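Researcher: Quick test of sequence recovery. Tokens follow.
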């Protein structure tokens, strides 16, 4: 899987540079976290970096050291994050943990919480990120859960996040179509967003018939792995080959500057564009292979089968 290995090597090299660049700028009790392609180890030279601050304080404005961090990150990854991206906001620790499912748990909150849980990576304070992840899992997997039960609270929020993402995509590409380019957003939804969702479903499924402590520790272990490694860990390398081959083709195409630029230039009138159509068809193939992998990994008696339908 040459493209997967190239992306992993590129991402980890940049992550190492970024961590070294900001390590003396951030107070010891604060965190700088990333999501997106660098966190998933899928980045290329055309990728931006989605980074943000997690604080235990109450301030809504970025702290005094945030601008110095932004400048260091921009020197290493010069492509700016998406407009209205995460850096404009400071994430508060308690917001990530409380009000899950409540009236204040809006689309932004569930997206930030799920991305931190499923693909979050640290630029500063690795221990802090792992602690947040564990606290979120302890919130989802409550005391008193029976061993045979799936973590349905978590599973339902993984499903809710993915469905919210799909609805949000429709809104942003129809009602406010200038927020993000349509073509590349559509392709990413078919590949990287779908694989992230699958990794959440598969991870929850592995915790069936384990006690609460083992459910939490296993999910901690899996969520600390990048998404591709997580899927291979759960399903096995040979069993995952068809999915990985399709995903490798997606990454190979997106690392090409001309393909990325072409997709960014497409609107919905470009549905039959040959470059878009080729990747879209590969995306349908990828979806079918993911479904086959799900069926091979969890047989018809596994409780995840019923849970994702009813």
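Model:
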């Amino acid at each position: 899987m040459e493209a997967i290995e190239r992306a992993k090597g590129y991402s980890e090299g940049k992550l190492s540079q970024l961590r070294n660049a900001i390590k003396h700028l951030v107070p010891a009790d604060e965190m700088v976290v990333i999501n997106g392609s660098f966190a998933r180890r899928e980045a290329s030279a055309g990728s931006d970096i989605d980074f943000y601050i997690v604080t235990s304080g109450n301030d809504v404005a970025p702290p005094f050291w945030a601008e110095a961090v932004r400048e260091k990150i921009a020197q290493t990854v010069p492509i700016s994050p998406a407009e209205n991206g995460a850096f404009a906001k400071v994430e508060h620790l308690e917001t990530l943990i409380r009000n899950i499912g409540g009236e204040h748990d809006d689309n932004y909150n569930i997206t930030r919480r799920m991305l931190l849980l499923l693909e979050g990576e640290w630029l500063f304070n690795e221990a802090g990120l792992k602690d947040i992840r564990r606290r979120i899992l302890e919130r989802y997997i409550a005391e008193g859960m029976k061993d045979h039960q799936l973590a349905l609270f978590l599973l339902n929020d993984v499903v809710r996040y993915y469905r919210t993402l799909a609805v949000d995509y429709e809104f942003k590409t129809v009602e406010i179509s200038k927020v993000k380019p349509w073509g590349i957003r559509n392709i990413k939804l078919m590949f990287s967003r779908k694989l992230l969702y699958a990794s959440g479903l598969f991870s929850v499924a592995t915790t069936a018939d384990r006690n609460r402590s083992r459910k939490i520790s296993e999910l901690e272990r899996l969520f600390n792995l990048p998404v591709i490694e997580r899927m291979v860990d759960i399903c096995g390398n040979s069993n995952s080959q068809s999915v990985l081959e399709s995903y490798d083709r997606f990454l190979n195409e997106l690392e090409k500057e001309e393909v990325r630029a072409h997709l960014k230039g497409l609107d919905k009138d470009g549905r039959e564009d040959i470059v878009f159509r080729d990747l879209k068809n590969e995306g349908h193939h990828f979806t079918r292979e993911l479904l086959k992998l799900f069926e091979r990994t969890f047989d018809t008696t596994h409780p995840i089968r019923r849970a994702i339908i009813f």
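The chain has two domains: 1-140, 145-310.
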